[in-house]
Amino acid sequence: MTPRSDEDLLRAFVGGDPTAFELLVRRHAAAVYQFVARFTKNAASTEDVVQETFLQISQSAAAFDGKRLFRPWLYTIAANKARDALRASTRRREFVSDFRDDPDEARACYQDLLRVDVESPAAELETDEKRRAVRKIVDAMPRPLWEVLVLAYYHQFRYRQIAAILDMPLGTVKSRLHAAVAFLGREYRALRTTETPVADEDAG
Fold first, then answer.
1. Would you give per-residue pLDDT tens digits along the chain (204 residues)?
2. What does each C-alpha distance from 164 to 24, 160, 169, 185 come to in angstroms?
3. Which residues are CB-contacts of 116 (< 8 A; sequence separation ≥ 6)?
4. Distance (Å, rounded) from C-alpha 99 to C-alpha 103?
5. CB atoms within 10 A of CB 74
6. 191 vs 193: CA distance, rounded Å
7. Do the Cβ atoms of 87 and 143 come closer than 8 Å?
8. Which of 27, 34, 25, 26 is nearest to 53 (CA)?
9. Contact (Cβ atoms closer than 8 angstroms) between residue 68 and residue 97
């Protein structure tokens, strides 16, 4: 049986089925937690933001347009809540994306990134050691860069969806993503260079 879509589950929840919302939470909570944790860098704050995010989803579910995609809306709310927690400021305006996946845009996104002379982050996740190295570099990356990188690579959002989630111009998303990939590639190459063992000249 084909799993029910996020949008179907949300409609069922609005229609009075509480188990549908529980399924949505189980389906997305772990990924949202990882995303929020990169903002807060604090377990307690991350848990609070995730709870607030899903609380907002439950409270706003009836107003959600089922013709739109659920995930961009979810991450818009999560990003806003995380920024609120990080800056302790007035809650940012939530911007709900209504973009469907566009195959042409998806190809353009990854073709553009391939023009940057670095390896894709996904290619560097083959071992635990590489995963730790990449995570360390991403954590050290300026926040405007890593928030775009995380949404593009690890959560598979398209350019326009990222622009909606982060409430920024499309051109800014593209330039920051290129800068983030370049940063990651440069730092990873430098890390590998420093960790490469030097041969013993007296050996032999």
1. 788 899 999 999 999 998 999 999 999 999 999 899 888 877 888 888 999 999 999 999 999 887 789 999 999 999 988 888 876 533 333 333 344 445 455 444 444 444 433 444 555 445 667 777 777 888 788 888 888 888 887 788 888 889 988 889 999 998 988 888 888 888 877 877 766 554 444 444
2. 21, 6, 8, 26
3. 178, 181, 182, 185
4. 12
5. 22
6. 5
7. no
8. 25
9. yes
Dihedral (C-alpha) 79, 82, 86, 92: value to the nearest 10 degrees?
Answer: 60
Structure tokens at 185: 């590639």
CB 11 within 8 A of CB 66: yes
pLDDT value at residue 133: 77
What domains does the chain contain, in order, with CATH numbers? 6-87 (1.10.1740.10), 103-195 (1.10.10.10)
- DSSP H helices, 61-127, are 70-87, 103-114
DSSP state of 202: T
